[in-house]
Design goal:
about 65% helix; globular; about 0% strand; 80 helices
Length: about 1450
């Protein structure tokens, strides 16, 4: 509608009688004319005298009226917003979801009910809907939900309207218009008279769009009389009549039964100066479709074609829908034949199919499905033709019969449109818990010889198991028996047995129902159950029975270990172990039962924690002694595994008992001691150690390698080569690799090549890593050794060296260096070798250096030829924009035509048009550019438009960008908000608020609904220039009340008197004033007004009290906030704080030290079904920790478990704070045990982070706790191979400046050096804050090799940019150049920015794109690409 209104020519209606075209009809009056002079006045309101005649004969449920009704005082109410960034993360998640909804609409033309409900739920939880959010949700409740019936869509729209209004959303005319549109799309019958009355009551003035849609509503029901009254009113208010009104009249006449008048509307339009457009003809075609008049449809389509009016596939689909809905499906194939299968056909056709299925016309939908061109193409190629899943899923959701589903699946399979349609349909039925449908489908699958697996039935059993629904479970089991899919052990143990009170009950019930209970699956499940319950005597009796079947121990090992851990019945444990040792029934065929038992013993100890082992040490010793008495033995390797576990648990006596079971004890006593670990120091100490080993004639390879590494880290090439010559026999491939890389960094091509040849002679199979190879290629090609460089590339291919993204970047810089020297021969040879060998795939970036050679010399002809050569060889068009722009600037039309012809032929006409458009824009030829962009059929390409917009923003080309935004106004599928956002970003960069204001006016003229980010950006520009913001800013408050200017306090009293309403003010006016003052941050003034209303006995709404309480709590004023709560409770029965206010209450209480009260409030929130925020829980737990309240922390942990993962709490929150609480109480040992168990019971992971504990202990200077915690970290590192704790401690030492302690920790825990991911994460985090350079340098000094030197330089450059330290950045850049390193584009961009900020000339070519572009590029280069589906 918005696009139509922008382009339509306006028309006025005469005051004469309306709407009869030819002859007389019972539905209409006579007509004497449609048009008069054009008027462009603004729409006015509808007076009572005019609205009264609008009657509506059909019944309309009164209950629906309340959904769009609103209180009269709503107009102007400031919505209830948060006043502090408590829910920053929640807001970010919501914004992401809302963007996803908008993206779904723009991309596919529809949204899913699940996504819409999720976002709606998030809005209700956050409680602060903006006008734009409400608008987007409302518009999503119409045709954008093709999977829902009309009535369900309308019900959802009503629910959204009512709920968001309760939450404080302010509705304006755009919201009412959106609701009208939803009513029209959902064919919802309502009273336009009542609708207008509700708008009037809400002080919302209808506009032209409102009246147009009310006319459409009348016409949708064929009520021409009602429509004529609206038209008369529009005429009286001088409102223009657009094409949309005539389109509605076509529909109205047709539904009133007067097709002659409907058709003659087109001639009336022409007489009024409005040529009927595609929408008008579409309305007429749909009218004929509803009548089933195929001849008229064909005639009209021919007329449209002759008039050179283009109807898109989407329009033809509307005709098909109208035909089908009116019962004329037989004519649909005639329309299908006219489809052109344009771009976007498939998503539009999918929406048509979904709508048809929803309305009960799945056969027609299936016929449309089979026309999908992509399906046919894929089926011909034989490449996994599995499209059509959406069709089958929606048929399942709409409960279509199994017979029909099977028919569709068979047709899809026979047509080669889907490889496994039955299986997919079964998956959908199972996922939807449709038992009867799923069983019917499985019967068909069995008939066709397809396998039926027991796990297919798990989704059906899950809900029965949760509900303890035994009859439902039996029904599924019977179906499994019918289908010969006998339940396995997992089915019985996880889904069947938990449904019954006991195993005996389950056995009896299943037996009575005719289900087999003597199967291996049921018996295995029974064994699992008995073992898990710890009933070892019963388990022994069961396993000892001669009728017990052959069941592998693996089927119940886990449950048996659980039973052993919880049991004190040593005798039964011994007998069961003996049974496992001797009885082959518990082992797989070909497996020794004794070995099987030995592995079980290892798993038993491995599954126990240190605390459990120490607590049951005596019982375990008895158990092991009895095993020895039974002559049970274990292999040596099993003993070693158990010994390592028990040694870490500090139970040496238990190890002796395990040793007694070993069958070959001599091999144990002869075992070698573990090799020592340690950190040997730096170069001098390493050289000394090396000399000692040499004098003693001992092996010195490891020390020599450390010495070479240290010398390379110090960039001491000469000394490294000396040591290499002296200890030639100790040179290993890794040492050669280090030295080769060092030579490359020092630009010593000769020595690097000699070392490489020596390495090849010593071991020809050794391969370097990709970066070292590429460094060799760079230095060799730089010094003219091109053939040797090519040989290196060939060796990379021969040895199958994996090429990383960093290698590709290094390769580009190698080629670009040659380009800047004009060496095209080197570039061609290297490119040909690299791409021919397949080391990397050709890309525009890697091909561009060849074109750069010619562009740098001004040879455009050569540049074009080079680009054409790259396309011919590698299918790439490098730097084509620069070439075309140069040709346009030069005016070389002949060469330009050649370039355009080539691009059009190779990449298509649309690509050529965009290239030419951008070239004209770049060179300021706007008239020619406009002609290009207005080419009929041209569609928006968001990626290309963004590229050029970012280029304009970077170069601050306001005129160019402004012209592009203006030219793309009518470009098909162009995101206008996105285009204006680019323009506002440039206004922000140039601080041009005048231009920004003009942009805002232009957006209103285009009727654009801006996104929230656009409004925030515009508001920021205006506010920063002290200009009034002409709209409500949709932003979360992050006001820092304590930072207010003192002048605000001085003016506070006078402002309070000025802002106070007059004495005779109503409660609604007081409500407005309180809300406004709260939003402005004038909390004390709002509190004074509230006290005044309380003295007068006047009650305000709950939103007023809640907003003031939140504002007071945000400013830390707990006492006044509670006073407001007391006032609210007196006036409003059952008053309750909102979620946000309750969370703020808890946070403020913790700040004031009222920990117990905060805990009570948390319990109250949960009892009231409110959701505490992550921040509130975190602050409360930290408060309890600071008071040493371990029990309180455990209580909070138990409380929040009921919330599930929704609040996204850190898994370590309770562990860390419980440890700190123990430390606070002086119980350091308990703290250590709690933390240690986290790492000994599972593997390391980034989530198991105890940096918080170390930091707090260091801040408190608690040396006793620090000693024990550091000992724990060392123990975990050296005995458990768990390095996370030691790494956290090392980084905390580093962060707090305790370098010596960090060095000492490295000496004791050398494996910390290998935790490269943690080091990189730390460096990434600290580089975002100023003053962190010293920490990064210290880290690199302590651990030189944890990452590439280029990476360290990039982070140092980032720190210098944050610190605005140009001198240090210059020195770093000089060092990088001297060492031959490559700096990424983002770092170069940062350095260039420093130069510009200092007013200096940038001494190198600045990367042309934006910071965001290079940051994203760098991020993508470090992230592996996902596999193709």
């Amino acid at each position: 509608m918005a696009a139509l209104l922008r382009s339509a020519r306006l028309l006025k209606i005469s005051p004469c009688a309306l709407l009869h075209v030819k002859g007389t009809h019972k539905h209409v009056a006579t007509i004497s004319g449609y048009c008069s002079r054009a008027v462009c006045r603004r729409a006015a309101g509808l007076s009572g005298s005019v609205t009264s005649p609008f009657s509506y004969s059909s019944a309309w449920p009164c209950s629906a009226l309340r959904y769009y009704g609103t209180a009269p005082e709503q107009k102007g109410v400031v919505k209830d917003e948060p006043s502090l960034g408590v829910r920053t993360k929640q807001a970010q998640q919501f914004d992401w979801a809302l963007a996803k909804l908008d993206s779904s609409v723009r991309r596919t033309g529809r949204v899913t009910k699940t996504l819409l409900q999720r976002i709606f739920h998030d809005i209700c939880r956050t409680g602060y809907p903006s006008g734009n959010q409400a608008l987007l949700l409302l518009r999503s409740c119409g045709s954008l939900l093709p999977e829902l019936p009309f009535a369900e869509r309308t019900e959802l729209a009503h629910r959204v309207w009512e709920k968001l209004q309760e939450l404080g959303a302010t509705y304006d005319v755009s919201h009412y218009n959106a609701l009208l549109k939803v009513y029209l799309q959902n064919e919802f019958r309502f009273s336009p008279t009542d609708f207008l009355a509700r708008m009037e009551a809400a002080n919302v003035q209808p506009n032209r769009v409102t009246y147009q849609r009310l006319i459409a509503a009348y016409c949708q029901d064929g009520d021409i009389e009602g429509a004529s009254k609206i038209l008369a009113f529009m005429k009286s208010k001088d409102l223009p009549i657009t094409e949309a009104v005539f389109n509605s009249l076509v529909t109205g006449h047709s539904r009133a039964g007067d097709m002659e008048s409907a058709a003659n509307i087109l001639s009336v339009m022409s007489g009024a100066g409005i040529e009927p457009g595609p929408d008008t003809y579409l309305a007429l075609l749909c009218a004929y479709a509803e009548k089933g008049d195929l001849a008229k449809i064909k005639e009209t389509l021919d007329t449209v074609e002759n008039k050179d009016i283009s109807l898109m596939d989407r329009d033809l689909m509307q005709i098909m829908f109208s035909l089908t809905k009116a019962g004329h499906q037989q004519h649909v194939p005639e329309i299908v034949e006219r489809m052109r299968h344009e771009r976007g056909y498939v998503p539009d056709a999918m929406n048509l199919c979904l709508s048809l299925i929803t309305q009960g016309f799945e056969d027609t939908a299936f016929a449309v499905l089979k026309t999908f061109p992509s399906l046919q193409a894929e089926s011909q190629n034989g490449d996994n033709p599995d499209l059509g899943n959406f069709f089958l899923r929606h048929c399942v959701n709409m409960d279509k019969s199994p017979e029909k589903l099977v028919h569709f699946c068979k047709d899809l399979k026979d047509s080669n449109l889907h490889s496994a349609p039955l299986q997919f349909t079964l998956y959908c039925a199972l996922d939807s818990k449709k038992t009867a449908m799923a069983v019917g489908l499985m019967k068909t699958m069995k008939e066709e010889g397809l396998p039926i697996r027991p796990h297919y039935f798990w989704p059906l059993l899950t809900q029965h198991q949760k509900d303890r629904n035994a009859p439902g479970t039996l029904e599924v089991l019977k179906a499994m028996q019918e289908l010969d899919a006998l339940p396995d052990v997992d089915t019985y143990s996880n889904y069947v047995l938990p449904t019954f009170p006991s195993v005996d009950t389950a056995r009896a019930t299943l037996k009575d129902a005719g289900c087999a209970v003597d199967t291996a699956g049921f018996i295995s499940a029974e064994v699992r159950n008995e073992a898990a319950r710890g009933n070892l005597s019963g388990l022994l009796s069961l396993m000892s029975s001669s009728s017990f079947p052959n069941i592998d121990l693996g089927a119940f090992r886990g449950s048996l270990i659980v039973g052993f851990k919880g049991s004190n019945d040593v005798e039964s444990m011994t007998k069961i172990t003996e049974l496992l040792y001797n009885d082959s029934r518990f082992s797989q065929a070909g497996t020794d039962s004794a070995d099987n038992m030995a592995y079980f013993l290892y798993n038993l100890f491995d599954g126990m924690t240190e605390t459990e082992v120490q607590a049951k040490e005596e019982k375990l010793r008895q158990y092991l002694n009895q095993l020895e008495q039974k002559n049970i033995t274990i292999p040596v390797n099993i003993y070693r595994g158990i010994r390592n576990i028990l040694d870490s648990y500090h139970v040496p006596e238990l190890i002796k008992d395990v040793l007694a079971l070993v069958d070959n004890k001599e091999s144990i006593r002869a075992s070698d001691a573990p090799s020592p670990r340690g950190f040997e120091g730096r170069v001098p100490s390493l050289e000394k150690k090396l000399e000692e080993l040499k004098s003693l004639a001992k092996p010195a390879g490891a020390i020599f390698k450390q010495l070479i590494s240290a010398l390379c880290a110090e960039e001491n090439l000469s000394r490294a080569l000396e040591m290499k010559a002296e200890y030639e026999e100790e040179m290993t491939p890794s040492c050669y690799a280090l030295l080769i890389n060092l030579c490359c960094r020092h630009d010593n091509a000769e020595e690097a090549l000699n070392l490489k040849r020596e390495l090849a002679r010593k071991d020809s199979e050794v391969a370097l890593d990709a970066n070292k190879y590429m460094s060799l290629v760079k230095v060799l090609s730089k010094h003219g050794k091109l053939e040797e460089a090519v040989d290196i590339l060939k060796e990379m291919k021969e040895k199958d060296v994996a090429v990383k993204d960093t290698t590709v970047t290094l390769l580009f810089h190698t080629l670009n260096s040659a380009a800047l020297k004009g060496d095209s021969t080197t570039i061609r040879r290297l490119q040909d070798t690299i791409f021919t060998l397949g080391l990397v795939s050709p890309s525009s970036n890697l091909c561009s250096p060849l074109v750069t050679v010619y562009l740098e010399s001004g040879d455009l002809t050569g540049a074009l030829e080079a680009t054409m050569e790259c396309h011919k060889l590698y299918n790439q068009l490098p730097r084509i924009h620069d070439i075309i722009s140069g040709l346009v600037e030069k005016g070389d039309t002949e060469l330009l035509q050649k370039a355009m012809d080539f691009v059009s032929q190779e990449r298509g006409e649309m690509t050529m048009l965009y290239d030419l458009f951008f070239a004209f824009m770049q060179t300021g030829r706007y008239r020619e550019a406009r002609k290009i962009i207005e080419t009929p059929g041209l569609r928006a390409r968001p990626g290309r438009l963004q590229w050029f917009a970012e280029k304009c923003i970077t170069g601050q080309q306001m005129e160019t960008l402004e012209n592009m935004v203006d030219m793309t106004a009518k470009l098909f599928e162009c995101d206008r908000d996105e285009m204006y956002h680019y323009l506002l970003r440039l206004c922000k960069d140039t601080n041009d608020w005048h231009k920004a204001e003009a942009v805002w006016t232009k957006m209103q003229e285009e009727n654009i609904i801006p996104r929230e980010r656009t409004l925030r950006l515009l508001a920021d520009i205006l506010k920063s220039n002290n200009q009034e913001v002409p709209f409500e800013v949709p932003e979360v408050w992050y006001e820092q009340h304590e930072a207010k200017d003192n002048s605000e306090v001085v003016r506070g009293q006078s402002a309070a008197s000025r802002d106070s309403p007059p004495k005779e003010a109503s409660a609604a006016e007081y409500h407005l004033r309180v809300m406004t003052l709260c939003k402005k941050g004038k909390v004390q003034e709002a509190f004074n007004i509230l006290k005044e209303t309380s003295r007068k006995g006047m009650a305000l709404g709950p939103a007023s009290y809640d907003a003031l309480i939140k504002s007071l709590l945000a400013s830390g004023n707990l006492e006044d906030a509670m006073a407001v709560k007391d006032i609210a409770s007196k006036h409003i029965s059952g008053f309750q704080l909102s979620d946000l206010a309750s969370n703020l209450h808890i946070i403020t209480q913790v700040k004031h030290g009222n920990i117990k009260d905060a805990l009570v409030n948390l319990k109250g929130m949960l009892q009231a079904d409110q959701v505490p925020s992550q921040l509130a829980i975190t602050r409360l737990v930290q408060g309890l920790s600071s008071h040493g309240d371990v029990q309180g922390i455990q209580e909070v942990e138990n409380l929040v478990k009921t919330l599930g993962p929704s609040i996204n709490l850190s898994s370590m929150l309770f562990v860390n704070n419980a440890a700190l609480a123990h430390i606070k109480n002086g119980d350091i040992q308990s703290a250590v045990e709690g933390l240690e168990s986290v790492y000994t019971q599972g593997s390391d992971s980034p989530q198991k982070n105890i940096s918080f504990v170390f930091r707090k202990v260091l801040e408190a200077n608690n040396e006793d706790a620090l000693d024990k915690l550091s000992a724990m970290a060392e123990r975990l590192c050296n005995h458990f191979a768990s390095y996370r704790a030691a790494t956290d401690l090392f980084l905390q030492y580093l962060d707090t400046g305790r370098t010596e302690e960090a060095k000492f920790l490295l000496q004791r825990c050398a494996a910390v050096v290998e935790q490269k991911d943690a080091m990189m994460s730390y460096m990434t985090k600290i580089s975002q804050k100023p003053g962190q350079v010293a920490k990064i340098k210290t880290l690199v000094e302590l651990i030189p090799d944890f990452t590439e030197k280029e990476t360290v330089c990039a982070y140092l450059m980032k720190c210098y940019a944050v610190d605005k330290d140009l001198s240090s950045a210059k020195a770093l850049y000089a060092q990088i150049q001297a060492e031959g390193l490559q700096l990424d584009e983002l770092s170069l961009k940062r350095l260039a920015s420093l130069y510009r900020d200092a007013g200096e000339t940038v001494p190198f070519e600045e990367p042309p794109e934006t910071f965001r572009f290079y940051a994203q590029k760098l991020k993508e280069s470090k992230t592996p690409s996902p596999a193709d589906n």
